[in-house]
Amino acid sequence: MRPLPQHVLAPAKVNLFLRIVGRRADGYHLLDSLMVPISLHDHLYVRCAPCPTAPLPQITVRVDTHDVPAGPDNLAHRAAALFLAETRTSLKVDIRIRKRIPVGSGLGGGSSDAAATLLALNRTLGLPYQCKELAEMGARLGADVPFFVYGRPGRVRGIGEQITVLDLPTPLSLVVCSDGCVLPTKQVYAMVEPSLTRRKPAISIDALVSGRGPLSRVLVNDLETAAVKIHPEVLSLKARLMEQGAQGALMTGSGSAVFGVWPNDQQARTAARRLRRHGLWAAAVRTLAVSPAL
């Protein structure tokens, strides 16, 4: 067993596109999305110790914000409980989380924390699970968890469990922006127009992957219309990004955060500073080829 505490960076993600391509009989929406990890991270400190006298694992999660539950409802707590149950291991697991990814923003913070926990515990026990097996475990926790287990840009289909890892060209310079509104994922999906659930042709991303095509052909999110019904300010945020010089802007995931694409890091940092002066949360980030949680 790996006894030393692990400091794990759990990255956020953006959806460069998100299409709804159908709906299963059980009500779950079928997606086709291009997801990429970005250089905005939660910090997890995972410490494990033997628990020889207790018949059940002892899991403690502490979070530095009251916006996120610290008990069994926390996704990292659920991930630890699931992993220890699957491995039939009794451990004391202490997880401290420094939240830096806005909560309820569509950036995947909770799912990334869960995946980081699975990866850390897998290392602790000597890597008993391969990535595919760990991702299948993660799918039982949430739709975005398998993507974060793979930790690389990927085409995500189904309800999040079908992942094709991609090699994208040079990193993109982005600004991620939020006005602090929390949009519950279930509420956004409940507002999706039935017409969007009809199967449609898949988006071709060959030009983007080769680095020869404009990003504007890809930036689309079928959930934006639903989110705007709940929080119209999403459109205002996109407009603010474009006013600051973004080449394109899009809501990520089920919102409410948006992101814009800039020609380079320096211009992105300048735009983020201007947005923060206007009272918004904004961060200049880059897309990542590999998650630091791996």
List the helices and strands and how they pair.
Layout: E1 6-23, E2 29-50, E3 58-63, H1 75-87, E4 91-98, H2 109-124, H3 131-139, H4 145-150, E5 154-158, E6 162-165, E7 173-178, H5 185-190, H6 206-210, E8 220-221, H7 224-230, H8 233-243, E9 248-251, E10 258-262, H9 265-277, E11 281-286
Parallel strand pairs: 1-8, 3-4
Antiparallel strand pairs: 1-2, 2-4, 2-5, 5-6, 7-10, 7-11, 9-10
Descriptive notes:
- The protein has about 290 residues and is α+β, with helices and mostly antiparallel strands.
- The protein has two domains: about 5-165, Ribosomal Protein S5, domain 2; about 175-285, GHMP kinase, C-terminal domain (Alpha-Beta Plaits, 2-Layer Sandwich), CATH 3.30.70.
- It is built from nine helices and eleven strands.
- The strands form two sheets. Strands 1, 2, 3, 4, 5, 6 and 8 form a seven-stranded mixed sheet that branches.
- Helix 1 runs parallel beside helix 2.
- The longest helix has 16 residues, at about 110-125.
- It is globular, with a radius of gyration of 19 Å.
- The mean pLDDT is about 90.
Helix content: 25-40%
The whole-number mean of residue pLDDT values reads 91
What is the count of structural domains?
2
- Uncertain segments are none
CATH topology of the largest domain: Ribosomal Protein S5, domain 2
- Give the second-level CATH assignment, the architecture of the largest domain: 2-Layer Sandwich
Number of distinct helices: 9
What's the shape? globular
Q: Helices and strands, in N-to-C order?
A: EEEHEHHHEEEHHEHHEEHE
* Beta-strand content: 25-35%
CATH class assignment of the largest domain: Alpha Beta
Q: How far do the termini sit from each other?
A: 18 Å
Task: Please give the largest β-sheet.
Answer: 7 strands, mixed
User: What structural category do the secondary elements indicate?
Assistant: alpha+beta
Q: Roughly how many Å is the radius of gyration?
A: 19 Å
Total strand count, please?
Answer: 11
